[in-house]
Amino acid sequence: MGEMTHRMLAAAAAALALPTAAVAQVPAAAPVTIDPAVAKARDAALEGDTLAWEIVEELTTEVGPRLAGTEKEAQARAWAVRKLKALGFSNVRVDSFEVQVWVRGEERGEIVTPFAQPLVLTALGNSGATPPEGLTAPVVFFPTIANLQAAPAGSLRGKIAFVSHAMTRTQDGSSYGAYGTARRIGPAVAAEKGAVAVLIRSIGTDSHRMPHTGGTNFPTGMTPIPAAALSIPDAEQLERVLQRGKPVSVKLLLTPRQTGLRSSGNVIAEVPGRDPSAGTIVIGGHLDSWDLATGAIDDGAGVAITTAAAKRIMSMGRPRRTIRVVWFGSEEIGLFGGNHYALTHKGERHATVSESDFGAGRIWQFRTTLPAAAKPVLERLTVALAPLGVPLSTATANGGPDGGPLARTGVAAIDLQQDGTDYFDLHHTPDDTLDKIDKGALRQNVAAWTAMLGVVANAPETIGAADPIR
Amino acid sequence: MGEMTHRMLAAAAAALALPTAAVAQVPAAAPVTIDPAVAKARDAALEGDTLAWEIVEELTTEVGPRLAGTEKEAQARAWAVRKLKALGFSNVRVDSFEVQVWVRGEERGEIVTPFAQPLVLTALGNSGATPPEGLTAPVVFFPTIANLQAAPAGSLRGKIAFVSHAMTRTQDGSSYGAYGTARRIGPAVAAEKGAVAVLIRSIGTDSHRMPHTGGTNFPTGMTPIPAAALSIPDAEQLERVLQRGKPVSVKLLLTPRQTGLRSSGNVIAEVPGRDPSAGTIVIGGHLDSWDLATGAIDDGAGVAITTAAAKRIMSMGRPRRTIRVVWFGSEEIGLFGGNHYALTHKGERHATVSESDFGAGRIWQFRTTLPAAAKPVLERLTVALAPLGVPLSTATANGGPDGGPLARTGVAAIDLQQDGTDYFDLHHTPDDTLDKIDKGALRQNVAAWTAMLGVVANAPETIGAADPIR
User: Could you say which residues form the signal peptide (chains A, B) (predicted)?
Assistant: First the structure.
């Protein structure tokens, strides 16, 4: 109940037209207060943080696109190590690992018949290549992935499968799970039924000629077929052409290739704590981006926000708990950095894990799997985040894409959830660039992360294993 | 003053806190009324016109991009003739002429040093080509075209000139005149000072990685240099990179070419009038588009709106004046269709000329050069357009890009002005597609054009030569 008083309860009861007694029977809790220094650090971030902008501006300008496992991601790591050291973080290092690297080539598409015209598309990660001269085939339309799954075996032999779908704009991004299926498994399903290539409507909510890339997967032993996402206006155009009822053929030229094993890694930096037994707080975002853009919102913003907040806590003096900032590598191509971290740091005592990887929109709610024994921490978190308009959600936290593997080992997760209403307008497109970040929203993010770290890093309570049932 | 009554004047005076007498001294004018059939046709269009959508949907879907002088523009003409005949128009024909045709090739750009990364750009019409392996050169930055013009002779030898600029969003599109200069003459100015290539910030108001193409011109005898527009985020990125103060080099690959003289033409269709001496009303838009998109707002919407309105007047019975619908050819590459029309129809008696070529946004005001003797026509126009929220502007009409040459021969122009606040977000980009058209706004356009045609086509007054001073 936080700082709610009897007088507030009476007012609430009046507003709800209930007898005061019906609400006031709740016993009055002791007021929850937070360290004034934390409130001050939070408010200072909200008012004037410039470090998050500096980080994302430098990363996107001086490195630019940084596809996992490529020389560009290596450049990003080198830049990151320099930057984190310059900011005064301790134990700055790279945890290296290897990944299979797929790189984009030429990509072109066009309707050949009945109405010749170009199509804007982009290859999906792990797409196969067409012959160097391209591939022309008739198109078979599936309104949803379910329709494709229902197609008879062998029925797509020699054909290009085109999978469309709607996609709903949601604040919490939950629609990505369902609609993303068309991209994640559509190509393999089409290949299994004999298709020579597959086109999907981009997994996105915009109406620009910006195709959304993203990874797809083919089971071991299956030869990948060429797989591309049409921009949403192009998918709608192809649907209109198909609706005319004439046979439609499309020509595709895609020349991506697998380049084999390459080096990737997580960049790690710390604000050392006073009490190793209290457990480490893991925060971060991912350093790699898709190759089509500079990855400002996915996920330059995430590494910038979390690092700027950690720096604010660092400047307040040594916290009880170590704050470990992880800039994960190779997220986009399969969560390699997050899995590597969880595997290689398994035996360590972790208190909490949190990731920022959903753009740069304002934080609108938070959720946790803090155990019941850490209830006072949750109460103080609630009080610390309230002035930013960030209430506790009833949903369960998952630690984000890269924090997820660690969270699934039982480490309590705290998710500061960003408003993703517009996120899938930009996600994985050439349009994910610095100009899309609102400085005010970025500062609100840093403020929320500062408040969270301020509360959790110095909490005297023990923060034990996660308890998803609260 | 239209239908304003003494009671309304009193109310207006009260609202302005003036004594009623101060306003009511204006003598009461005879009420201006319009033919109820025109009001009915206007309101029917507003309520339920579907023809304009049908035209722009079919043109953009079944023809797609239709660059002037190419086979695609020829396909558009063939489609147009079929469509206009099917709609019942008379004297459907093509007035042919020839144009020099420039076609786009490969186009790629990248920052080579100090921060290697790709740039999204597109060649400007009439751009020269780079060598087939591309061209790498240092970049010299000019914040505005004025700075480029002030550069010393020869100072750009071996350099790529990069011209940036701000561009203000305006409702009437007036900012295009000033800011468009960077595109129209920037490349020639840079070439004259020795530049090996030129990059401009796109002439646009969006923040998407959508470069805006458009024509540029090199004086006779000057060898065109490669000239491209960066998307606005890419222009801002290049500025940020330049601000670091290190030498910046860019690699360009552009392989456009001039293909020589090709056939183009204006498609003409008529609603024949009863009284040839009353003069023809010319309306229309342009049929050609840039090659990057399907030209939905530039200018599929224009031919669709004007034709749908003419069809509504046709269905009301034979008007006094002939309405001539012209779907101009080769507008984008130099107003060839409009100039050809004015030249070849010079001796004919024209009453008015109007074009729709500013997107598909709502009409928000109108302006004319109707002569003083046709004041009753202007008064009825004002009354007919008022219910659509379209008042008379104090500015002078120009007849639009294709109607302009005819207007400049002395034919009265009536411009129904569309709200172009968002127009330069899409103008000449790959994003000019059907999904950008709002059906409600399109119907409001057809309603306004129906009202205008209904008033002008049957006006009993003589409509003589234009009088820009009203």
Answer: 1-24
This complex has an ipTM of: 0.91
Task: Report the percentage of chain A scoring pLDDT > 70.
Answer: 93
Q: If 0-12 CB within 10 Å is exposed, 13-18 middle and 19+ buried, where does residue A160 land?
A: buried
Q: Which residues of A touch B117 (CB under 8 A)?
A: 63-65, 294
Dihedral angle sign, alpha carbons of residues A22, A26, A28, A31: negative
| Structural domain of B134 | 106-255
Q: What pLDDT, on a 0 to 100 scale, did the predictor assign at position B29?
A: 64
Name the helix (H) or strand (E) containing B29: none
Question: Which of the listed residues A255, A280, A311 is the one where a domain comes to its end?
Answer: A255
Q: If you average pLDDT over every residue of chain A, what do you get?
A: 94
In this prediction, residue A3 carries a pLDDT of 33
Q: Whole-model pTM above 0.80?
A: yes
Beta strands in A128-255 (DSSP E): 135-142, 160-163, 197-201, 227-230, 249-254
Q: Do B197 and B219 share a domain, yes or no? A: yes
Structure confidence at residue A285 (pLDDT) = 98
Residue B65 and residue B123 in one domain: no
A59: contact with B, CB 8 A cutoff? no
Chain B interface includes A232 (CB < 8 A): yes
Long-range contacts of A1-6 (CB under 8 A, 24+ apart): A1/A26, A1/A28, A1/A29, A2/A29, A2/A31, A2/A32, A2/A379, A2/A382, A2/A383, A2/A386, A3/A31, A3/A32, A3/A33, A3/A383, A4/A29
Residues 157-186 of B with CB under 8 A from A: none
Quick check: A233 and A208 in contact, CB under 8 A?
yes
Q: What is the pLDDT of residues A19-38, one digit of tens each?
A: 444 444 555 667 899 999 99
A71 touches B: beta carbon within 8 Å: no
Name the nearest CA neighbour of A385 among A46, A157, A21, A27: A46
Give residue-wise pLDDT tens across range B138-183.
Answer: 999 999 999 999 999 999 999 999 999 999 999 999 999 989 999 9
Give yes or no for A121 touching B (CB within 8 A). Answer: no
The answer to the question of residue A170 being in a domain is yes
Boundary (domain end) residue, out of B255, B273, B307: B255
Rounded Cα distance between A349 and A282, Å, is: 11
Instruction: Say how many domains are in chain B.
Output: 2
Regarding whether B173 and B222 lie in a shared domain, the answer is yes
At B432 the three-state DSSP class reads coil
Which helix (H) or strand (E) segment is A343 a member of?
A: helix A336-344
Nearest neighbour of B115 by CB, restricted to A62, A233, A435: A62
Q: What letter represents residue A149's amino acid?
A: Q
Cβ within 8 Å, pair A240-B57: yes
Assess B105–A contact: CB distance below 8 Å, yes or no: no
Summarize pLDDT for A226-273 with one digit per residue, the tens: 999 999 999 999 999 999 999 999 999 999 999 999 999 999 999 999
Asked if the model's pLDDT at residue B10 lies above 70, the reply is no
Q: Kindly report the CATH number assigned to the domain that includes residue A348.
A: 3.40.630.10
**Does A468 fall in a domain?**
no
Are A333 and A368 in the same domain?
A: yes
Q: Kindly state the average pLDDT of the residues B131-135.
A: 98
Same domain, A429 and A305: yes
Q: What is the pLDDT of residue B467?
A: 86
* For residue A11, pLDDT beyond 80: no
